[in-house]
Amino acid sequence: MATDPGLEKIQRWMQACILNQGSVEEAIASESAQSAVPAEQALKLVLPSNSLTALERLDIYRGMYLLRMEEALSIDYPALKHFLGDNEFMRLVARYVDVYPSRSYTLNRLGDRLCEFVATLDDLPRKEFCRDLARLEYALTCVFDAPETTVLTSEAVSAVPQQAWENVRLKPVEAFRLLEFEYPVSRYLGAVDGENPFPRTARKKSWLVAYRHNYGLHRMELSQPAYELLSAIAEGKTLGQAIAPVMARRWRPAVKQSDLFGWFRDWMAEGLFQSLEWADAQQSAAER
Amino acid sequence: MGQTTVQRFADRALRASSALAFLAPLLTRLAIGSAYHFTGDGKLHHLDRTTQFFASLSIPFPHFNAIFIAWLEFVGGLGLFFGLATRIFAALLSCSMIVALITSDGGEWLKKFPADITDVTSFTYLLFLIWLVLYGPGPVSIDNLLAKWLHIGGPRPPRARTRIKSMANRWDYKDLGFGIGLRSVHFQHILDKNPAIDWFEVLSENYMDTGGRPLHVLDQVAERYPLVLHGVSLSVGSTDPINFEYLKKLKALAQRVKANWVSDHLCWCGVTGLNTHDLLPMPYTTEALRHTVARVRTIQDFLERPIALENASTYLEFAASTWPESEFLAALAEEADCGILLDVNNVYVSSYNHGFDPKAYIDRIPRDRVVQMHLAGHTNKGTHIVDTHNDYVIDTVWDLYRYAHRRLGGVATLLEWDANIPSFEVVHSEALKARKFREQEEAQLKTPELAEIPAYGD
């Protein structure tokens, strides 16, 4: 019996056994493993040790695989893990990596598709809440790793002529994500981090901006009008185009001019924008 | 990419002959030992006839020599049979065979040279005896048991090539001293306190795709300390295509932080485009060696620098392997012209899991290829050890580190601690134990000018 099917087949076989989530016997009998090495030959592929059989030795690698995946996703999704509990989270990880195994050289990208995967799981407890939590935590990982960009300076702001402000476009920094949720998931994450009490997990819309300031990761909760204004700015609209619809809508409570000034003060202070540009009024009118 | 039939046959034949090598000295000893013993017994029972025979050959003191030779053959035969004092008895019996060739056989045996020379029994015996004198009794012998019991023998203590203080790897990579892995839980301590540590090792993949705080901290650390990049996803043994996008980022990072060198592991991480994020074991075959050598060369060409490969901890062995891991690693380093990062803890972990001698493993590592050593804690599960990097280094591994230092000389040493990470001071003080052990080892070697250590291949 050939104990050396060649390097390529040995590697395909071992990987198939590691990724298979059944018992080790089921793993070596799986279609993917047998496409490399037939099950009856596989038993002779690995040597036993003095204390472990060949299959027990193979099982060491299989056991460590899921633990490693769980550890990586727990780092990026601590609130989701807290909400689901250890067992349910482990079950989610196992199902997720079965569908989306890592294809990257870094585990930092392992959870990139967890949000969309959670959305497909009808048997997940409080699926919609989980999906919002996953969206929030994924956005935070993106903000954490985003490239560092310069922050808009007061000199750049004061260089803008007063009459040009209506046509100014503000460009957000790279480490910036605007998020809208059906549930108060930011408050839930804050509670997991010990920043605030746990909120009720009933449906309640919430809006926030996640951003990085001085290399620290931050979340700023927004009102709906502030969220819509910031979204319009981030889409590249001029300040005039962004502010007008927000002020025209009837909000409860109504948006006052002082609210606008307060929002912009906070956004500038937190370094949400990296640069600005403006076109003169005539050019702007021509564009319209 | 499988091995050819000839290669497979040759590999297996060599492996089989190596496994049966113990039989050669054993069968020789049993055959000629019993022959001498019964011949000696015959002489003792017929001393008169033996004395007369010796006298007829004009051997001086024939009676005394008859008694001496009879007892030598009687006792020496038993010695050879059981492998006790083999070399001594073989040497004495060789002398008696030379005398026999000169006296009893006269010059007649020379006339049989070369075609029928082995017809002369004394000559054939002499050849076997010389073989036993030079090669010893083999592993199945009382001598071998005594040597192990008394801790004598083992690898031949060879003549030193290099003094311990002046030893260097072939690239003249510096002995950076004693470092630890750069971990995010220690970032603030390092930035605030500027601790007096020799160097840091950086996990490459943690900094290749981020523009956030980790990279910002790394830039600051790189300005203050020497750095080495250590990766876990190079996957040098994989049969997947080389990931040049990864290499491009690795090269850029190495240039950015002015890395002293770049290292990864002798392993594979995944195939068919997947990554298990584990350091999976290689089958140590000639095919795998050729495959990995070619990949390491390509990688080094791309990075424009030699890389160092670490022996990973492994939990299984493939039946297909025809090389011991240490010899595979040494051959890979020689043929690909790359360095070796010797993880002393991994040597111990794998030796426990597979039942080999960790010192013999270190003996096979070519000294001038070693640029760095690793130390770490592990978790003993009873049936096997898992390389968890979550605890202090155990005493056995420290002993092995001292042995490795004696064999391989002073190279940059790093303590890995990746789970349940304690304070910076605790990790650093554990790393500094390596300095203490090294200093003790060097003190035992007396003055550095005279301190000489064995060299690989001597």
Q: Structural class given helices, strands, pairing of chain A? A: mainly alpha
Number of domains of chain B: 2
Strand arrangement within the widest β-sheet of chain A reads: 3-4-5
CATH superfamily assignment of the largest domain in chain B? Divalent-metal-dependent TIM barrel enzymes
Estimated share of beta-strand residues of chain A: 5-15%
What is the largest interface, and how many residues per chain? A-B, 51 and 50 residues
Give a quick set of tags describing it:
heterodimer; A: 288 residues; mainly alpha; 3-stranded antiparallel β-sheet; two-stranded antiparallel sheet; 15 helices; 6 strands; B: 458 residues; alpha/beta; TIM Barrel; 2 domains; 8-stranded parallel β-barrel; two-stranded antiparallel ribbon; 17 helices; elongated; disordered C terminus
Verbal overview:
The complex is a heterodimer of chains A (288) and B (458). Chain A has 288 residues and is mainly alpha-helical. Chain A has a domain of 141 residues. Chain A is built from 15 helices and 6 strands. In chain A, strands 3-4-5 form a 3-stranded antiparallel β-sheet. Chain A has a two-stranded antiparallel sheet with strand order 2-6. In chain A, strand 4 and strand 5 form a beta hairpin. The longest helix of chain A has 23 residues. Chain B is of the alpha/beta class and 458 residues long. Chain B folds into 2 domains: 131 residues, no CATH class; 281 residues, Alpha-Beta Barrel (TIM Barrel). Chain B contains 17 helices and 11 strands. The radius of gyration of chain B is 29 Å and the shape is elongated. The relative contact order of chain B is 0.09. At the A-B interface, helix 1, strand 1 and helix 5 of A face helix 10, helix 12 and strand 6 of B. Strand 1 of chain A pairs antiparallel with strand 6 of chain B.
